[in-house]
Amino acid sequence: MDLNRIQVKVAPWNERSMRLVRRLGFRKKGVLRDNIVVKGELQDDVLFSLLKRENGVRTVGKHLEPVESCPT
After folding, report:
1. What integer pLDDT is reported at residue 70 of this predicted model?
2. What is the C-alpha to C-alpha distance for residues 14 and 30, in angstroms, rounded to an integer?
């Protein structure tokens, strides 16, 4: 799989997931206000992305993981 971009949405209250995506090299792109309905209430999502040219992405089995450098 030759991916250029991976995008992740995280609930802003989910601190563990926020730390994980940052540790993996994802960059915060913005907040999707009132993006989802949870238990009848609108809630925000935080949008992160990882680009191939920034950190690179490689496929390991069925999983994706960032790599330190990506050949151009």
Report:
1. 42
2. 16
